[in-house]
Amino acid sequence: MIKGCKTVMMELQGLDFPRTDVRGYFQFVVKAPAGVAKDFDLSRSRVVVEQLMAGQEAEITDVEGLKAAQLILSDVWRWRRRGGGMDDETDRPTYAIALESLQNIEPEQIDRITSSLLDNLPISEVEKRQMSGSVQQVAMAGINGAVWGSLAACLAALLIFNFARGG
User: What confidence category does residue 103 fall into, taking pLDDT thresholds of 50, 70 and 90?
Assistant: First the structure.
């Protein structure tokens, strides 16, 4: 089963569904696949996938978690092979599109805005989503300012060094 899971993850990479998206999918998965009990704790399959990605195959002892992980990966693989999410032109991650399609999870549950600035404010998720663009622009302006400032300081230091050396 371990080899089967690793093979499906490699196949998913070939279908432009990288390991980071596999990790994201398993982070939010809520419905057990066919062949697994409905009350199965899906965090067990999440742990197995993390172990597989870390190359710790020898430490995997949860056979049921491995079986569930293999079934979930197979569901995602079949969805992707049928063209699932390939025509989506948004900038959302592929795992979010897969979760909406396969798990019927609302986008707000997946794309929750988390920010050290916005989390402490008493505002709704919709307001956080609206403000996130502005916060991102301010952060990028700060980063750009720091980069340009350091370039200007470096240029000034070089000019001073050259004049001091030449005089």
Answer: confident
